[in-house]
Amino acid sequence: MTALFSTPFIKMQGAGNDFIVLDALSHPFPDNFDFSAAALAWCDRHYGIGSDGLLLLATPEAPVRTAGAVIRMRMWNPDGSEDMCGNGLRCIVHLANRRGHVKDSQFIVQTWAGLRTVEVLTRDKIRVAMGLPDFNPATIPLQLPPAQAATRGMEYMLEVGGRHIPHVTTFSTGSTHTVIFVPTLPDDEPFGHLSPLIEHHAWFPERTSIMWTQVVNEHQLKLRIWERGAGETLACGTGASAAAVAAQITERCGRGVDVQSRGGTLHIEWQPGTEILMAGPAQVVFEGEIAAKDGDYRG
């Protein structure tokens, strides 16, 4: 008879970006646990719990503990790929604060994209220093042909699906994002057709998320979001950060902007040479237990 195991989980959301969260500080996992396989199974909205990603709250690695990190966040997309996630980071910070894993309102978190300083503003609102935007094509990574080469993340033309798409800029805010400025957000047909083609375009060797961005005014942006490894999502913290930075470097908005997506609004502040600051909500939706056959998720 196959043994069963169960593990507690927390369902959380940040501006509509929803996650399955595992607290390894309270319930440790074996070293050979396959979180990528678990994400593939559990994030499925028809046969699993359903979410935009799987988050792990864990102890930081020894080298970064000496640099001041007090907790670690890891995140896997529904396709099992590991990534950085700004909304997920706020959820992890909220949970760590709620469960008493951290004592201070401001502290450092180890993430897939490096160390991030965070601050608990209120019980349900978190501010995150998202790091500096990365415009280096080698590390984004972005492989534009010489005739298209952009500088400092400035705009270029993208040809995909038989269409020429202008006002495109690509850089990293901890995860690769392609921001496309449009007069109005795309309807379902062009959005669903073009977004996956752009995600897998040859110019993006590690794929890219796509932020379709409408400028409402110099203080407000609207997004429709396609995340690599997840598809359409209601929100994306690193993507909202990218849209705000792209709008500023192309002189479409100022240093502080509200970025509205289908899931809610994030406030982003940035000026050249400084870290991006993102503030927004994080909430626990419910808690439960996942039951599975022992060995299903062992590497």
Walkthrough of the structure:
This protein is of the alpha+beta class and 299 residues long. The chain folds into two domains: 4-129 and 282-293, Diaminopimelate Epimerase, Chain A, domain 1 (Roll), CATH 3.10.310; 146-274, Diaminopimelate Epimerase, Chain A, domain 1. It is built from five helices and 18 strands. The chain is globular, with a radius of gyration of 19 Å.
Would you state the CATH class of the largest domain? Alpha Beta
Give the CATH H-level superfamily of the largest domain: Diaminopimelate Epimerase, Chain A, domain 1
Strand content range:
35-45%
Q: What Rg do the Cα atoms give?
A: 19 Å
Number of strands: 18
CATH fold-level topology of the largest domain: Diaminopimelate Epimerase, Chain A, domain 1
**Distance between the ends:** 21 Å
Number of helical segments with 4 or more residues: 5
If you average the pLDDT, what whole number results?
A: 95
Reported for the largest beta sheet, the result is: 18 strands, mixed
Give me the CATH architecture of the largest domain, please.
Roll
Helix/strand/pairing class, anyone? alpha+beta
What best-fitting shape do the alpha-carbon axes yield? globular
Give the total of domains. Answer: 2
| Poorly predicted residue ranges | none
Order of helices and strands: EEHEHEEHEEEEEEHEEEHEEEE
Roughly what percent helix? 10-25%
